[in-house]
Sequence to fold (69 residues):
Amino acid sequence: GTISVGGFGLESVATGSVVDFVKAFTLVTANGDEILCSSTQNSSVFKYALCGFGQLGFINKIYVQPIRH
Fold:
């Protein structure tokens, strides 16, 4: 749910939203296919599925870049 709506919070001003740190994820589509999405693989789906309110499918197996806090 957090990735589908952007992941904004109190620290977003200083560090960015949660979706800014997503490197890749798998998307389960309506017909059950699971596709890997990143900025280099299925990049158009990656771009539109983030903050997409689940309209393209179910975001699963999220890979994020950790940030130093």
